[in-house]
Specification:
Length: 206
């Protein structure tokens, strides 16, 4: 079996496991949820995301090209919403002279261990501007009109209450501030199989 096939198989197995646990645990009464339920799901999801992001980091993929184009000219106060395990960090580290404060916002605490491991590779100068927060997108503890740019990469497609998140982003952005985003979109009508797959995973993904 080729390396590519083994990687794809591992990704599919991991994703299937996470989806199965989500579907199982979503039927449990709230009082029966334990660290072996939703906590385990969050932990497995964090591990899956970390492994998936590591495998693609540094590769000349379309998404990485797009990240580089989008995140190359940042300054002032920047919020990376849905930081995950730190995939966007390589695009921030070379801008410490222009970025004064960088808020890495990730509500899933299971992601934080991987995130801090990623941050440990960077310089003290970069650490000086970084603030890791567990805020949710609907409630960021930032002043009105205090942020120069908000970054979201594959985040808005997975949140509940997307309109509320966008309203919160609008609240914290300065006049003229920028929302920089890369998001999954609905497959075209000419690809019914992919549209079906999107419909199938949406309840779990959110």
């Amino acid at each position: 079996m080729s390396c590519c096939c083994r990687t794809l198989q591992a990704v599919l197995v991991s994703l299937a496991l996470v989806i199965g646990l989500v579907l199982y645990n979503s039927h449990l009464p709230r009082e029966r949820e334990t660290p072996g339920g939703r906590g385990l799901i969050k932990s497995l999801f964090a591990r899956f995301i970390n492994g998936n992001m590591k495998s693609s980091e540094g590769q000349d993929t379309i998404i990485n090209q797009r990240r580089g184009e989008l995140l190359h000219n940042l300054s002032g106060t920047v919020v990376d919403l849905g930081t995950g395990t730190g995939t966007n960090i390589p695009y921030f580290v070379n801008q410490t002279s222009s970025i004064k404060s960088l808020y890495l916002v990730e509500p899933n605490a299971e992601m934080h261990g991987y995130l801090y491991d990623r941050l440990a590779l960077e310089s003290d100068e970069f650490h000086d501007i970084v603030h890791v927060k567990d805020w949710i997108g609907q409630e960021m503890e930032l002043d009105d009109e205090s942020v120069d740019a908000v970054v979201t990469v594959h985040v808005l497609c997975s949140v509940t209450g997307m309109v509320d998140v966008l309203e919160e982003i609008k609240r914290v952005l300065k006049p003229g501030g920028r929302l920089l985003f890369i998001e999954h979109v609905r497959a075209p009508e000419g690809d019914p199989d992919l549209r079906w797959l999107q419909d199938f995973v949406e309840p779990v993904w959110r």
